[in-house]
Design goal:
The protein is mainly α. About 80% of the residues lie in helices and about 0% in strands.
């Protein structure tokens, strides 16, 4: 019941934000701006999305190999592609499918799989924090709210790093923390390094979408603000980040677009929505193709069929 309420609330938040957004700019303006996109938008976007997919899969492959179980890279590609579609339907299902697939194919305990996925998610946040900090260090002017957010995030990470370094025994005895503490600071650093190409491809994709619609965002400013935008979009308070992502992008990037305020907001929203539409279409097609593979069928069975996982 609570999950249904949370899902309903996410739909309400998404609808409310989109209504507020399109009260300022009209759908007709967005469609007109989208029709004026240069011819290179789709091929460049697809090239960027393929790079994102390959880099994401590579980071998962290496991290799983270090902390969970060794898998063939082709299998990871198929699993990751299939879970793009599953995650579009339900994010938790997408993440859980990876864990159960590894459990069924390698016998690795489910809790170790959950812990490894949590490690990957935490590394994603840490990588965004590092990029935002690097950008903030050289940016001439950044919003005060971003500075506070970065400081708070580093404070929280310092506490987590202390726990990882000390490895308290009462936590090591819990399967969920065994992977996180066993990885140590060096293991976290390795996972961070292999995650950076994925984030670099995400940045390149979004910046190219901005440039296609005249939003000339300097790379330094993108380094500062895009991590915050990605984190806001990932919050489970809206559907697929719709509404929250566009609101955050307007706040950070509208000033880099030409024209009056309405024209600036239209350019940013169009760049965001067009990029998101292309990405969702690509992920859906990729997901369908991967689900038809041998690995994809096994993954579907992991989600659909109740299992008795190894919990050791």
């Amino acid at each position: 019941m609570r999950k249904r309420l949370v899902r309903l609330l996410a739909w309400v938040v998404t609808a409310g934000l989109l209504v507020m957004l399109f009260r300022r700019i009209s759908v007709a303006q967005v469609l007109e701006a989208a029709r004026g996109a240069p011819g290179w938008v789709v091929p460049v976007a697809l090239a960027g999305l393929i790079a994102i997919y390959l880099c994401d899969s590579f980071a998962i492959w290496k991290t799983f190999g270090w902390f969970l179980a060794r898998m063939r890279f082709t299998d990871v590609l198929l699993v990751r592609g299939a879970t793009y579609l599953l995650a579009a339907i339900n994010y938790n299902v997408g993440q859980g499918a990876i864990v159960y697939f590894v459990n069924r194919t390698t016998g690795t305990p489910v809790m170790r799989g959950v812990a490894t996925v949590l490690l990957i998610m935490g590394i994603n946040v840490l990588a965004l924090l590092c990029l935002a900090t690097a950008g903030a260090a050289v940016s001439p002017a950044i919003p005060h709210a971003v500075t506070i957010l970065i400081a708070v995030a580093w404070t929280g990470f310092a506490g987590y790093a202390t726990v990882v370094a000390l490895k308290p025994g009462w936590l090591r005895q819990r399967p969920l923390f065994d992977v996180l503490l066993g990885a140590g600071l060096v293991g976290h650093a390795r996972a961070l390094v292999v995650r950076l190409p994925h984030l670099a491809s995400l940045f390149a994709f979004q910046i190219s979408m901005f440039r296609a619609f005249g939003v000339d965002v300097p790379v330094i400013d993108a380094l500062v603000a895009l991590p915050v935008v990605f984190l806001v979009g990932a919050l489970p308070i809206s559907i697929q980040g719709l509404g929250t992502t566009q609101a955050a992008m307007i706040y950070f990037f509208a000033r880099f677009a030409p024209g009056d305020r309405i024209a600036q907001e239209t350019a940013v929203v169009t760049a965001s929505l067009v990029g998101q539409a292309i990405a969702l279409s690509f992920q859906a097609l990729l997901g369908v193709a991967c689900l038809k593979s041998r690995v994809g069928r096994a993954l579907s069975e992991s989600v659909a069929v109740p299992t008795e996982p190894t919990t050791g």
